[in-house]
Amino acid sequence: MADFFNEDTPHGWLKRVIYKKYLQAYVAKILNFNLNVVLIDGFAGEGRYGSEWRNEIESYGSPLIMIMVVLQFYCNFIDRKNQQTIGSTWTNLHETAIRRFMEELTEEGEEVRRPELVGIGKTYIYLVENKPKNFKALRRNIQLYLGSFFRSDVELETSERDKSVVIQVRHPQFPITISISRVTFDEFQRERFHNSKTLTILDPFGYSHTPMQHVQEFVDQTSEVLISFMSGFVNRFCRKNPGSVAELYGIDRPSGNLEEFLRIVRDNAKGSTAENPKSCTKSYIEHMKRRTGSAYAQFYEMRGKRNNVIYHLIHFANHDKALEAMKETLNTCTQYEGVFKMTDYKVLVEGIPLELGNAQNEEELARTIFGEYCGKTVKLVDVKNFVFEHTPFVFRKNALKLLEKQTDPKIINVVDSRNSTEKRRKWTYPDWGDWKLTFRGSDT
Ligand SMILES: C[S@@+](CC[C@H](N)C(=O)[O-])C[C@H]1O[C@@H](n2cnc3c(N)ncnc32)[C@H](O)[C@@H]1O
């Protein structure tokens, strides 16, 4: 792995586009509500690939992506307050920061100090990297970038044992604290803050450093996790290294009953007995949900050029809005990111590629919903969650309208189970009320 941060890969880039997009949605949602954001990167890496300082956020590693997205948010917030074009301050400062690596500028910082902004949350970023060389490089890259962005407003505190470094931005409009720890992820203990939401990114090389016992600490009512799950490795090493795989799944080491253990890991996924990476992932999700009470999980299959499964990206959350935000994020992913186009790659759900770029076919969504629910009565919210968790689609009410409006309707009854006196308009499914939909049987 000596060259990991020297040479970037297309699928690594794709993953980081997803991080960037989701972080942009997440950070804005939380900070705008005047809550604090906690971002944790359990396998941080160096923060940069190669030796260039590039403009595109996704060309950096996940820790710098976190920092850049947060800075971008605060800049946008300031722009909004000043009624400027959104993003102009960020772009100027970022580009100036990057330029400073190429040429020595003499004029002092472009940013203007203003009083502290009220009504906006603070950001705490925790980065965990156990390899001394990578830790050192990460620390330096962050100092260089922030130092160049702010010039004189970054303050650095180093803890006594030099196992962790705290970098604090002392600019009243950028309330950001970054802690970098040189420990292994399973040694890292999270801090909890009032009025905050936490997003943890876990991007290990393999599967043996993320025991469920520890990962589950990062999934709760106010905390989401995005984990790269090396399902192919797990599938392969199930028999060779059952101890590590058992820890990954939070299963006590099987006492001699290897077959039973393998069955639990591989067959736990409902409806699937196949020995394949996907069933390992589904099984993992089942185990995590059971242990954390996490209500929601979705996973994305990342495939390489030869259509091979590289890994599954799993998103655990306790709020349906989180799943919705992730799907919407992916749905708007076709913009050119420099010369990179996300549609060059495949992101799949249940074997079906996502229609990136708002290109979703709503008739296909309608067919998928009907296929799942024909002959049943279900809550509207369950239909929505099914779409977000188990299909490649973004939930759109228009698909329900298509099913109800046709000459041979497939939705035959829509009632508000709260018996509200308020009536819905025909072919609408309002957010108020507790709507139940009845789908006709397939051959009636
Ligand atoms: C796949 S890389 C992370 C890449 C990063 N997410 C990015 O976007 O650039 C994994 C990193 O985790 C580090 N690492 C490996 N085992 C670890 C452990 N047990 N705890 C913390 N970091 C670890 C490696 O040194 C490596 O830098």
Short summary:
This protein is α/β, with parallel strands linked by helices and 444 residues long. It has 13 helices and 14 strands.
Mind explaining what this structure looks like?
The chain has 444 residues and is α/β, with parallel strands linked by helices. The protein folds into two domains: 10-353, Rossmann fold (3-Layer(aba) Sandwich), CATH 3.40.50; 362-439. The protein is 37% helix and 18% strand. The protein contains 13 helices and 14 strands. The chain has an eleven-stranded mixed β-sheet with strand order 3-4-5-2-1-6-7-9-8-10-11, sandwiched between helices. It has a three-stranded antiparallel β-sheet with strand order 12-14-13. Helix 1 (10-32) packs across helix 10 (320-331) and helix 8 (258-267) crosses helix 9 (277-292). The longest helix has 23 residues, at 10-32. It starts with 9 loop residues before the first helix and ends in a 5-residue tail after the last strand. Residues 103-113, 270-275 and 335-341 have low confidence and may be disordered. S-adenosylmethionine binds next to loops. S-adenosylmethionine (SAM) binds next to loops.
